[in-house]
């Protein structure tokens, strides 16, 4: 479209031709096209021949039913107030042409014309002169859809790394110089106070929202940041779409957790829902509780949880502040997805667990404390010192210490063997010191219980040693019997520990 329009403009033939045509191709803040240059000029030399010529060119490109007699390259200052709305629609149609930015030298003139036109549209909307009639709303939504909605190429970098987060530089879209202005137009359009939501919802419909959500998988962080703001504004402006948006985002999380384990926009979507959840009315609807248990809690499963854990924790804490009894479901879910082979992820889980326990009441804590402290017992004995250290740091939290102190008769017998093994065998001095301090804390809290647990531990250790001795004797008898048996061709040979095994 732009090519056809620009091809009809006067071409550079000679210096005299340029000098003669300079006045006839200028307008007030309009775009002067001379050879291959685009520049701004004054309106002092506007000649009617230029307007008539450009109108004839425009009529060959744009449908007369949409932009009757309006040349899209005119400036808004060059037309009357009555014609500005038609010019606005005409410029929106002009910006529906999409270019290939993989080659920066391709269509450079047309790209500059489109960008200048987009900037004019932003200024016009920002000035408050735009009246958002239904044709204008349709034109903005169409222009936004044509420019923004696209299919992203495969994420080769993530596929090579198995879907794990990497430390490489972010990928920036080469077409951002245009996309940024289109996002600005869409945002100003949605946030405008004069926009009638009842009319706009016919064009910003479910299909539009779904395709907008698909863009959150963009690798460009600048685009995801713009999308985050726009979706949040749509959620606030169009109340009728709120249930659909929540359901659509849930589906994105389901696919991410259970199918793909790769999505670039999970953190941004969680940021939006952090503020959405804080606005939920009490008592919470069943739909919201299902969203927590089925969409948010399973987000602990993917390997790349560290890239969005802060936003996820914030959403979960917002739920617990609304309804503290949901802490039981959250802790059960965390225990279900607890990482047993990923130490870094385990440290992050322990940090989040502390935040959840701070929002947990005594009654709810008692429902979950046995399986919880069985898991913490394993963390205390972890050979990875950061995991053991982070688990011991839980006792620095006054609220958690209070919960443990009231339930020490159940909790201390569960974790005492881990504490005793740490004091005897753990290789890290910091973990050893923290363990000794914790034992002192329990001794000051209830010395009789500590002595009782120590006695049970000593009995179990003695019983374990006795069982080990019995197994050793049995194996020695088996070795003796096996060595006395004649060796035939298909008889298995018992190799004693002292027998040397030849190297492969």
UniProtKB/TrEMBL annotation:
Q: Which domain of life does this protein belong to? A: Eukaryota
Gene Ontology MF term list: protein phosphatase regulator activity
Q: Where is the signal peptide?
A: none
Ubl conjugation as a keyword of this entry, yes or no, is no
Keyword list (alphabetical) reads: Cytoplasm
Question: What would be one Gene Ontology cellular-component term for the protein?
Answer: protein phosphatase type 2A complex
Report biased composition (Polar residues) as residue ranges: 23-44
Q: Give the principal location in a single coarse category.
A: cytoplasm
- What is one process in the GO biological process aspect for this record? signal transduction
> Where do the segments described as Disordered lie?
1-44
| InterPro entries, per database record | ARM-like, ARM-type_fold, PP2A_B56
| Cellular localisation | Cytoplasm
Tell me, in a sentence or two, what this protein's role is. Answer: The B regulatory subunit might modulate substrate selectivity and catalytic activity, and also might direct the localization of the catalytic enzyme to a particular subcellular compartment.
Protein family according to the UniProt entry: Belongs to the phosphatase 2A regulatory subunit B56 family.
Q: What is the protein name given in its UniProt record?
A: Serine/threonine protein phosphatase 2A regulatory subunit
Q: Which organism is the protein's source? A: Coptis chinensis
